[in-house]
Amino acid sequence: MITRKSKREIDMMHEAGKLLARCHKEIAQRIKPGVTTKEIDDFVESFLAEHGATPEQKGYNGYEYATCASINDEICHGFPRDEKLVKGDVVTIDMVVNLNGGLADSAWTYVVGESDEKTDKLLEVTKTSLYKGIEQAMPGNRIGDIGHAIQQYAEAEGLAVVRDFTGHGIGPTIHEEPQIPHYGLAGKGPRLKEGMVITIEPMLNEGAWQSTMDDNNWTARTIDGSRSAQFEHTIVISKDGPIILTDQDNIEE
């Protein structure tokens, strides 16, 4: 069932989103060669605890960590580990924050050390595709409008859209209806209504879009070893346009 949130619920989720955005800005300062994703995970858990929040995905279906940390050809749900990051790695940190019962979800892909032209393109196109999708998150539009905008842009730029994982409704639990595919046909799917809260989280690959699952039954990676990137925001459908609850650009330091 698709639910619409009250102003109180949205305000609570917005506070969680602000904290999550602050956490990502802290992570950006810590991602560098020699750091491990387990160290990043430990930092996130401590940061959230210091601010009265908890990592919602820890314990979700038995998941053991505060974050997902996906490196290079890992599309999503990579486990934090003690392997040191090296220059040129791309790493996606994905987390769900629970602050006083309000949830927010955001993933961000970082370059380790100096970037290069190919890596810049992967991240820039993936991030831009997120905002292309957000532009369609308006009352009266349909879910297919979001996926269509992302797919049209990403494929024109030579990247492939992962189809095995989607955005979703969120609050009061992590994954709720509706699913938000990042591909599809404009004008198709459920209609977006004021008060819905969803995630838009395109994952784009440099090679084929298909994924394969690791033996841990969590981590998905590209079938051809190509790199993958992901950017995700939690969005409120509003009569005044989409509201990004996890926006990193307008938060107090």
Automatic annotation (TrEMBL):
What EC identifiers does the entry list? 3.4.11.18
Class of this enzyme: hydrolase
Q: Which UniProt keywords apply?
A: Aminopeptidase, Hydrolase, Protease
* Superkingdom of origin: Bacteria
Name the record gives this protein? Type I methionyl aminopeptidase
